[in-house]
TrEMBL record:
<dbReference type="InterPro" id="IPR027417">
    <property type="entry name" value="P-loop_NTPase"/>
</dbReference>
<keyword id="KW-0967">Endosome</keyword>
<feature type="compositionally biased region" description="Polar residues">
    <location>
        <begin position="193"/>
        <end position="207"/>
    </location>
</feature>
<feature type="region of interest" description="Disordered">
    <location>
        <begin position="193"/>
        <end position="222"/>
    </location>
</feature>
<keyword id="KW-0472">Membrane</keyword>
<keyword id="KW-0547">Nucleotide-binding</keyword>
<keyword id="KW-1015">Disulfide bond</keyword>
<dbReference type="GO" id="GO:0005525">
    <property type="term" value="F:GTP binding"/>
</dbReference>
<dbReference type="GO" id="GO:0003925">
    <property type="term" value="F:G protein activity"/>
</dbReference>
<comment type="similarity">
    <text>Belongs to the small GTPase superfamily. Rab family.</text>
</comment>
<protein>
    <recommendedName>
        <fullName>small monomeric GTPase</fullName>
        <ecNumber>3.6.5.2</ecNumber>
    </recommendedName>
</protein>
<dbReference type="InterPro" id="IPR005225">
    <property type="entry name" value="Small_GTP-bd"/>
</dbReference>
<dbReference type="InterPro" id="IPR050305">
    <property type="entry name" value="Small_GTPase_Rab"/>
</dbReference>
<keyword id="KW-0488">Methylation</keyword>
<dbReference type="InterPro" id="IPR001806">
    <property type="entry name" value="Small_GTPase"/>
</dbReference>
<keyword id="KW-0449">Lipoprotein</keyword>
<dbReference type="Pfam" id="PF00071">
    <property type="entry name" value="Ras"/>
</dbReference>
Length: 222
């Protein structure tokens, strides 16, 4: 059987990366986003992994005014939260264009650690203020919640980044969090393309041959 999506051309290859403590739900979130399914089993990520998805982004054309649809190939890097993989995972920060910084709404410590993850990002990402979306996971587990929405929103405001509360069980706001991050990244790219600098970040338009599948799980050889 031929997978027609595998042969699509695309205009942009966008690399997003999920980070946060072990167990906050990075793998489960990405699985919900790409496959629209929930996985209850906890299998900790070893090192790094990635998933892929094709989406359409509506932006502006060359004149900076006309609306145009761009085919975007999303590469979603899934990092291990465990400390022992830290040097490997932070090495991947440099190549990513946007970040899903996740904590578990039922785990106060994972929220306190957001500051540490942010420092890691500032030290290792493409610039000191990369495009980041803060994500509070497991919003469906209401009775065990230990992080108040206001606390999280205050922190996100301090960093000047959007904040979403998501559930991989119900799918609530999973798409919205990724789409918001994609929009930030694409806006930045449009600015650098049409804003006078004439250069693009490492997400410049690419041809389809670099990608094998439109959706599904891939494992890095590292
Ligand atoms: N109820 C509920 N459980 C969730 C949700 N997201 C993740 N989980 C559960 O939390 C556990 C850990 O999820 P993972 O996605 O494996 O966590 P991770 O952040 O990838 O962990 P590492 O790979 O070790 O960094 C699993 O048992 C998931 O089923 C959610 O939104 N709601
Ligand atoms: Mg994982």
């Amino acid at each position: 059987m031929t997978c027609t999506m595998a042969n699509w051309d695309y205009d942009y290859l966008i690399k997003l990366l999920a980070l946060g403590d072990s167990g906050v739900g990075k793998t489960t979130f990405l699985y919900r986003y790409t496959d629209n399914k929930f996985n209850r089993k906890f299998t900790t990520t070893v090192g790094i992994d990635f998933r892929e998805k094709r989406v359409v982004y509506t932006g502006t054309g060359v004149d900076g005014a006309t609306e145009k649809n761009f085919r975007v190939h999303l590469q979603l890097w899934d990092t291990a939260g465990q400390e022992r993989f830290r040097s490997l995972t932070t090495a991947f920060f440099r190549d990513a264009m946007g970040f899903l910084l996740m904590f578990d709404l039922t785990n106060q410590q994972s929220f306190l650690n957001v500051r540490n993850w942010m420092s890691q990002l500032q030290a290792n990402a493409y610039c000191e203020s990369p495009d980041v979306v803060l994500v509070g996971t497991k919003a469906d587990v209401r009775d065990m919640r230990s992080v108040h929405a206001r606390q999280a929103r205050d922190l996100a405001d301090r960093y000047g980044i959007p904040y979403f509360e998501t559930s991989a069980v119900t799918g609530a706001d999973v798409d919205l969090a990724v789409t918001t991050l994609l929009n930030l990244v694409m806006k930045r790219m449009e600015q650098s393309t049409y804003g006078g600098q004439g250069s693009e970040p490492n997400g410049s338009p690419v041809s389809s041959h670099e990608v094998e599948e439109a959706s599904g799980r891939k494992r890095c050889a590292c």
